[in-house]
Amino acid sequence: MPTKKDTSLCYIRLFNAFTSSIAFDLYLDNQLMYSYFLYEDFTKYYPIPSGKHILKLTQHYKEDVLYEKKINLQRFQIYTGVLACKYKDPETYHIFCLEEPQKLLEPPRLAVRLNHFARFDGAISLNLPEEPLPIRNIRYGQASSYLVKEPAPYTFIIKETSEENELTTLSSKKLKPGRLYSIYLVGDGTKTFPYKTVLSIDGFSYLPIEKIQKRTT
Fold first, then answer.
1. Where does the DUF4397 domain lie (predicted)?
2. Sign of CA dihedral 155, 156, 161, 165
């Protein structure tokens, strides 16, 4: 584990977008990181040394490794690892390692982006009633750039880009100033796992990255 003297820290959390009722255990460098990892769960952000690491996935309380991923994390960066299926291969596990932008906002603004991890092959777009399609053409496994907005209640409509069919809606969410948000589209369109959105506050909104950076300058 990192100590107070570490100056090469980065942060990583995991999000489970794999449409399954199976509970998983997560290991980082052969040490248990998170137990009983369910669909739609987020872990906390873990401060770890930058550099090369290995993530492993097992079924809860089982030893057989279902999936293993080597990652190389850069100092002072923030990451979300998204457990999902491999593109067009719904039975194969994959962890997408997303680097979270460290975007400074002018008060009282906030920012939101759209991340596509639903089992839906087409591109998706985000629509606001007052601003049609400010984010569009986000493909599976991708994250959009941040859309900067004023604090207010918003209704976000997620659509299929090519047909503009509505997939799901995130209604009347009052977003707070100074925060970075991600909207994750997950699900496979079935009754068990319908398309839905999961709203997350991104780490740069509150993690002490700037303090760590200043200690090394």
1. 11-123
2. negative
Mean pLDDT to the nearest integer, 81-90: 94
CB atoms within 10 A of CB 79: 21
What pLDDT is stored for residue 8 in this prediction?
81
* Residue 26 CA: distances (Å) to CA of 14, 20, 55, 144, 175: 9, 16, 7, 27, 31
Instruction: Catalogue all structural domains in the chain, each as residue range(s) with its CATH number.
Output: 1-100+206-217 (2.60.40.1120), 104-201 (2.60.40.2890)
The pTM score is 0.92
Bridge partners for 57 per DSSP:
26, 67
Average pLDDT on 41-58 reads 98
* Contact between 201 and 78 (Cβ < 8 Å): no
- Alpha-carbon distance 48 to 51, whole Å? 9
CA 178 from centroid of its chain's CA atoms? 19
Total residue length of the chain: 217
Measure the N-to-C terminal CA separation of the chain; round to a whole number of Å. Answer: 23
Strand order in the sheet with 147-149: 147-149, 110-116, 180-186, 196-201
- Nearest CA to 123 out of 137, 113, 144, 142 is that of 137
Residue pLDDT, tens place only, 178-215: 999 999 999 999 999 999 999 999 999 999 876 556 55
